[in-house]
Design the sequence.
């Protein structure tokens, strides 16, 4: 798999598409803080998005946004208005449509929840707000997914929960692709967009057990060893082999939670010739040995 797909497998993404919010006239609604990622998409109308301690941002029709480790926030027709409690509105609603005064503005929203133990793999490389404007070329693809999501929510057919969850996963990947293409992201996600560093990352993820040397990765990237090592650290934030060890340890921790896990087999599958070397690397990262981690889990 490619690096983003690998990370998604460890995140165990749960997509929760909540409802279509509709509002008209003068309105303002406050939503509670949400761990991991919340998304919103302006299906119709424009409105203001106000994150705590941040300037109001105008959301135009067709815009999609992700809020990372989302604080309490407000959406409103006018940022000066006093907001009502969004949780109460949603609790009183019937079905997957929440109406507050009209339907001039329509917002599709939901959230993505991850396995907390691995959430940092993605959360650490994302800014608090990712906005994909409606006139961005990537929005054409997002609009198709959003329309399918909205249709599924409103129709309430057999298997709706499964379909909306899968479409939610697609939406998140499409939004992250758009973010990566913008040149804004940092860390491994941003590095994937670099043709040479991205090639090295894909090589590592494609053969995680290989005894990689910096020279090998530089060759995969088509760069000299020194240029590659410097550029990799600039883009990813870690030296190449440190990144590889970190990724191996995340894979190891995930594998240790599986029934019948064997430390020896996991060590070999990740390229370690001895349990001792594997155990030392694991303990340096997580503060306890693999066997103690497996026992406690």
Sequence:
């Amino acid at each position: 798999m490619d690096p983003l797909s690998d990370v998604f497998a460890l995140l165990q993404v749960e997509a929760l598409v909540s409802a279509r919010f509709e509002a008209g006239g003068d309105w303002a609604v406050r939503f509670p803080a949400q761990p991991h990622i919340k998304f919103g998409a302006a299906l119709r109308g424009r409105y203001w998005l106000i994150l705590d301690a941040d300037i109001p941002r105008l959301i135009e029709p067709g815009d999609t946004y992700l809020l990372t480790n989302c604080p309490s926030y407000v959406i409103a027709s006018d940022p000066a208005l006093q907001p009502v409690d969004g949780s109460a509105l949603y609790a009183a609603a019937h079905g997957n449509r929440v109406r507050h005064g009209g339907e001039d503005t329509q917002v599709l929203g939901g959230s993505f929840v991850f396995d907390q133990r691995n959430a940092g793999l993605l959360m650490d490389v994302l800014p608090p707000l990712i906005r994909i404007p409606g006139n961005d070329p990537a929005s054409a693809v997002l609009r198709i997914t959003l329309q399918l999501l909205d249709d599924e929510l409103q129709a309430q057919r057999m298997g709706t929960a499964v379909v909306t969850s899968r479409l939610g996963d697609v939406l998140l990947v499409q939004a992250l692709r758009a973010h990566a293409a913008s040149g804004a992201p940092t860390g491994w996600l941003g590095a994937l967009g670099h043709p040479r560093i991205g090639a090295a990352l894909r090589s590592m993820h494609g053969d995680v057990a290989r005894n990689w040397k910096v020279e090998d990765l530089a060759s995969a990237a088509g760069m000299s060893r020194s240029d590659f090592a410097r550029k990799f650290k600039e883009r990813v934030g870690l030296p190449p082999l440190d990144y590889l060890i970190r990724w191996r340890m995340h894979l190891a921790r995930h594998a240790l939670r599986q029934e019948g896990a064997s430390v020896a087999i996991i060590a070999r599958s990740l390229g370690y010739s001895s349990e001792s070397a594997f155990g030392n690397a694991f303990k340096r990262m997580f503060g306890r040995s693999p066997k103690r981690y497996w026992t406690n889990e």
User: Anything to note?
Assistant: The longest helix spans residues 160-181. The radius of gyration is 22 Å.
